[in-house]
Amino acid sequence: MIIDYDFDNISNPYKHFNVSELGEQLGAIQRLVKSLDIPVLIIVDGWESSGKGFIIKDLIRELDPRSFKVSDFENSSEEEKARPFLWRFWRKLPKRGNISIFDRSFYYKTMNHLEINPTELKQNVEDFISMEKKLLDDDMIIVKFFLHEREKTQRKRIDQLKNDKFRSFFVTHRDIDQNSNYKSYLKHFDSVLKLSDLPFSGWNVVSTEDLEAASKYVIGTTIQKINSEINRINEKNKKLTDDKTAEKLETTPLDFVDLNISLGENEYKEKIKKLQDEAKNVAYELYNRRIPCVLVFEGMDAAGKGGAIKRLTSLIDPRIYEVIPIAAPDETEKQYHYLWRFIRNMPAKGRMTIFDRSWYGRVLVERIEGLASVTEWTRAYGEINNMEKQLGNFGTLVLKFFLYIDKDEQLQRFQHREENADKLYKITEEDWRNREKWDSYIDAMNEMLVRTNTTYAPWIVISGQDKKYARVKVLQEFIKYGKEITEK
Amino acid sequence: MIIDYDFDNISNPYKHFNVSELGEQLGAIQRLVKSLDIPVLIIVDGWESSGKGFIIKDLIRELDPRSFKVSDFENSSEEEKARPFLWRFWRKLPKRGNISIFDRSFYYKTMNHLEINPTELKQNVEDFISMEKKLLDDDMIIVKFFLHEREKTQRKRIDQLKNDKFRSFFVTHRDIDQNSNYKSYLKHFDSVLKLSDLPFSGWNVVSTEDLEAASKYVIGTTIQKINSEINRINEKNKKLTDDKTAEKLETTPLDFVDLNISLGENEYKEKIKKLQDEAKNVAYELYNRRIPCVLVFEGMDAAGKGGAIKRLTSLIDPRIYEVIPIAAPDETEKQYHYLWRFIRNMPAKGRMTIFDRSWYGRVLVERIEGLASVTEWTRAYGEINNMEKQLGNFGTLVLKFFLYIDKDEQLQRFQHREENADKLYKITEEDWRNREKWDSYIDAMNEMLVRTNTTYAPWIVISGQDKKYARVKVLQEFIKYGKEITEK
């Protein structure tokens, strides 16, 4: 890639244009993606002191500042440091119709880490690729640039910057270090670029020996790339008439749930207090060890999720956990990838986030109501597993509780809710409508349980038929897994 | 207040209830405020080690965890430290229908600052009161508790906590310091409480000598207070049939704008580059001195706001500024006070935020379209001035540009936009509808300019009739004010 880049022999198809001409064309493209509601991510990575600031300024010169944003990731905040590495990038993604320009990107840390071992390198790049893949599948356009320069050019630029009254703060030890070890970095960058040169988000290596020429190349390439990607996305979505049919699964884990287990009143009373107290201590232990914890609650309507969550959190200090009830996405949330609203709510180290319903809506309600196409929800299993795996790699305890009740039990609970004024708020028209689709939900739930039950984020299926049993069981499982991870 | 509190003679109207009974009643109240869409803020402040954790846990025991949140403010993040003190509390406010519990509050810093001088004390409390006032006017219910305990009880509790395996991390130097200087703190707290004992958000002092009794008192008082506040709000809103008529202003600053000023093409070209370069340096200087900067752009549709912003930012490093285009609030934003969505976007130290339209929508479009009642928009002038003053006190450079064009010029620009394919995106039905209300807008704009032109956040009214003149003038004014503040 860059290791054999020939600085003396560069072809630049945009050299005869001038920068403002190209800029205006890009302005037109910006309005086009706005009208098509397509998000665009432009990554400008490369050597330190290779002119990223200069290029980015040219890139945005003719853009409408109301629908683009430039983000840099040089310094990460405490908030960011306390969460998985990719979290900070998810936060800064463009919404539909907007352009985000990343000044450096998720690649920077791996690129700056010269002594990284090959396994870690591969693992990191795989995480980045899988993020790009998710976004590409969601019809984001990604344009990646690597700014390349000669060793002596870099040295000259570092010296210039140091002497600039207003901008000397831009020079860091990394600039110096790269220049002193130029050859080693060259080799290292080359391997990172090779590993992450994806079909629809390949790297464009740009010589910045001549900055103006580089600007032209970057703007021109961006225009060309966005245009061709718009065509590709259109073609793809035309073909996608969604004639794809999902194969039906043979495995039906819900059939194996014993719905007859129950607990007597006395046994319940005896157990619950003790377990709540233990759960509290586990939560403190997680807090003290700075282990983040994600608990997901799924299940039928009226399966007892709310009650189980209340019993679980009852003695835990409310300053260390948060319960997030999930409903349909709002206007703002719809502007992003469906995982965005969940990822931005992931807990910091030592915190616990409980999702009352979750991203599994993608393969449940969105599947059944046709809000996601077959292609989209079948793809979601892998996307979800990958997201949970990254949480796991970060050290997060991820547990997913599924509360199961049968159709008769649900009917009784619905009726009970309608008959009791103080429970009436819990039952809506929608609950009755969902109930009509009971069998489709069972199919979708079975498939979900099979496809997303992993070692790093296991499903814990619990009969909710008897509320007392379910509440005790949730506590027991939380304590079991919690102890396992804190005693490691 | 607390200085003459008689621990031996406490009346507790809730002592004959038990905690879970009261808790269930509070649960019913939670559902009531949810159905009424009323936000509730419960502040639990008081001595260190006075049992806040215990009380809050009792308070939430029977609450639905999906619509309450507990926040503590013990440790502030970098993000928070880089912004005005009250910002962190605005972020954690309850949305409509939800309950937020603050474990300590905006009072804590002033309370912990024993050596504070009287002027600063008064100034701080005034800021807190004005925040509460804004929220109360927006029909938030605020319940404030101060947990009070004897010197020796505090000492005992600190010792106990220190020896608790799981919770010793809760003890800080502040606990120790308060206990060693109990009498001085008592006096100091007393004056803070007296200054902030507002009619609709008065302090409830609670003895926590007996924690269980204290819990009962807190839950009972919360129930009683929320009930009475709901009644008060209902009464208030019944009376508010909005027969209030706004008096018409005599002063009409827009009449004094000279719309004939213009700049020749050559003069423009000569000036603009130099000014852009200077503006860039001013922006860097603000960045280096960590001075935050807020620029507001208002004006008629098609007055040239977008073009002026683009010329202003053209050479400034996009990593240090952000342009925020303001449209109607989305679903989430509507759940909060109208200032919430602006306050959360205020710049950190050294950053610049440019609002393309702003909170002035409250007294412009919301006034004219009847989206805010007369009471609400007349109140807004004071609320806005107060918010901007707090920014000013924090050291923020706040400049508000108003671009003025006349009705004929607007018509020409609208027609030009409709005739040009690449500008068509800029013109909508709504623009034409607003135009029909031209005279009402002129009245509203005049009143806004008169009532919110302050030394700490001045309006700079510029003729937008000639785009070149306006762009140059915006740059000149930004440079002038920017230099003034950086050279101080």
Quick structural overview:
Helices cover 49% and strands 12% of the residues of chain A. Chain A has helices spanning 19-36, 52-60, 78-81, 87-90, 108-112, 118-137, 151-162, 173-180, 182-195, 211-239, 265-288, 305-313, 340-343, 365-368, 374-393, 407-419, 429-436, 438-451, 467-486, and strands spanning 40-46, 68-72, 99-103, 141-148, 203-207, 293-299, 321-325, 352-356, 397-404, 459-463. In chain A, strands 2-3-1-4-5 form a five-stranded parallel beta sheet, with helices on both faces.
Supply database-style keywords.
488 residues, alpha/beta, 5-stranded parallel β-sheet, 19 helices, 49% helix
Structure description:
The structure is a homodimer of 488-residue chains. In chain A, the strands form 2 sheets. The first copy, chain A, has a 5-stranded parallel beta sheet, with helices on both faces. Chain A has a 5-stranded parallel beta sheet with strand order 7-8-6-9-10, with helices on both faces. Chain A is an alpha/beta fold and 488 residues long. Chain A has helices at 19-36, 52-60, 78-81, 87-90, 108-112, 118-137, 151-162, 173-180, 182-195, 211-239, 265-288, 305-313, 340-343, 365-368, 374-393, 407-419, 429-436, 438-451, 467-486; strands spanning 40-46, 68-72, 99-103, 141-148, 203-207, 293-299, 321-325, 352-356, 397-404, 459-463. The first copy, chain A, contains 19 helices and 10 strands. At the A-B interface, helix 1, helix 2, strand 2, helix 11 and helix 12 of A face helix 1, helix 2, strand 2, helix 11 and helix 12 of B.
